[in-house]
Automatic annotation (TrEMBL):
GO terms, molecular function: acid phosphatase activity
Swiss-Prot/TrEMBL catalytic activity: a phosphate monoester + H2O = an alcohol + phosphate
UniProt-recorded name of the protein: acid phosphatase
Family per similarity comment: Belongs to the histidine acid phosphatase family.
Species of origin: Caenorhabditis remanei
Matches recorded under PANTHER family: ACID PHOSPHATASE-RELATED (PTHR11567), PROSTATIC ACID PHOSPHATASE (PTHR11567:SF211)
EC number(s) stated in the UniProt entry for this protein: 3.1.3.2
Keyword set, alphabetical order: Disulfide bond, Glycoprotein, Hydrolase, Membrane, Signal, Transmembrane, Transmembrane helix
Endpoints of the signal sequence: 1-18
Transmembrane spans: 386-409
Amino acid sequence: MRVLFYVFILVIIAAIQAQLISVHVIFRHGARAPVLNVTSEEAKSYFYRGLGQLTDEGIEQAKLIGKVLKDRYVNSFVDSRMLPTQLLFRSSPVERCLMTIQTVGSTMFPNATPPVQTMPRPDDFLLVPKLDCSFQIDEWALFFNLTEEERDKARKNPWFVSDKALRKATSKSVTLQERSEENLPALILEKEAGLAVPAWFNEEAYKESLHVFYSALSVMASVGEYKSSKGIRIKAGLLLDKIFNDIQEKIRCHEKKSVNRISCDQKKLQIFSSHDLLILPLLEALGIREDVLGKELPPEFLSAIVIETMLVDNVPFVKIFYRGNPREITLRDVTGLVRNCPPKQPLCPADLFTSCCGEFITADPKSECYEEPSTQSPNEWAMTPISWILFGISIVLILILIVMSYLVIRYKNRSVVTIKKVCLEN
């Protein structure tokens, strides 16, 4: 009887056919050098590519996630010959992001590296989080009680605010209270690379530094105690909007495909290489930041969000995975934790997922970021095309009225002259 039961279960499972129709992968770049400076000659030698550049370890991390993605999707989902029409590889223009995604692509497709698309940093609202929006300066001024002089500094260099957050968090730390002048971000990277660091920067100080560093990131990412829906929307809203639209378009395509036999392979695997300042607000928007990172920890290098869209018996569902450690080869299923998705369920209905995050989505972050103050007073009337048409008609009518008045007056004058002439003749 038990054997029959298991056979029945297997028949049910076999009857349920899951067809993967699209995949979106968003990851942070691999391990890099400190951005501002290093603390020793040894560190300078180790980070030989320069400040902010990808390290050899970062390249190895990129190769590993490339292998993970290759094993999961190449051959089984996309053609191993690398067909550009099936793929979108998109990167922030920052070199460490470009190097990361290029390494991932060459690992996935050894015979032909996928083309990587990018755009200039000022114009990239998809993968380069903007920090110079006027509303953000206003929010930071409230968070830190900035003087007018400090507001000007923040406008010129937004990282001035990050430094204030770092110092504020350091002053609250028992372990690091006296270390506010130390280069903590560099020491974190140097210790992780196995380089010599000062004796005081022990394991306890290192772990505490991660929390302090998170505070500096969170204010720039608009998450945690500095959460701002508008700030999240500016940084991650366009990417969310694109992903949701892609999913909906792919579902519509497959609905038509069952009738018209069309191809739906266009850009079905999309991979994005970006920064921690995008990963943080993206996780916050999806409602899983604390679940996957902890309350006050930054994302690690090459942490990744993977979104799979599939049809199960022709019904669209989504699965969401997170990879938190650059050495991991497995993906953690976080579907049941995502905002709007049914808790503890292995699949999330696609319509629920794509409607999860309305307050964090935007199709035009540029206009929201760089809002131009209106020079028009509340009572000032703006001329519209219809207004100009009515104005023109009014001018024409006035001219006609003037001409007609002139003709009437002239006619009356001529009549008077004629009457007088007749009277004189008589």
